[in-house]
Model the fold of this input.
Amino acid sequence: MMNKIVLATGNKGKVKELSELLTAHNIEIVPQSDFNVSEVAETGTTFVENAIIKARHAAKITGLPAIADDSGLEVDHLLGAPGIYSARYAGENSDDADNNAKLLDALDGIAAKQRSARFQCVLVYLRHADDPTPIICQGTWEGEIITEQQGEEGFGYDPLFWIEEHQQTSAQLPRDLKNQLSHRGKALAKLMQSFN
Done:
């Protein structure tokens, strides 16, 4: 089995999470930044399309197999927004703080029972740049959006994403538990099964 895969993202949080999860499988994740791979325009209209675009771009430039993650937050009251625009919800150059502020503003005054949300993750694995049958795995993590941030761990919307059964936000969970429960952890477990 392959042991070196390029990870098609520049997001340090995703690199760290996926590296931790894959180390247990003797797979070395090399971020695309190590190869000076440029970001590619995410022109798809779904998580699947965007993940394939990113994986194909990284595989083509590096010559390595590639994994790409496209993930985001879907809030029911906002009809699935921010969705595929999660990373740039507050604008092209927005950061986590900007995006979280916009989300809180969009849900201002909305009752707790109407704040249901989920993280979605689609992982795509390409054996090479022209792979006609990418492996596509999806994971979902249900929760709700609270009214103020709690916790210092994680990244993105983690401080606002409440996990009812643990009475904590994603940003308060111990890392190993988050890796088991999360959308990314679930998608990766499916990907690992497909390698066996």
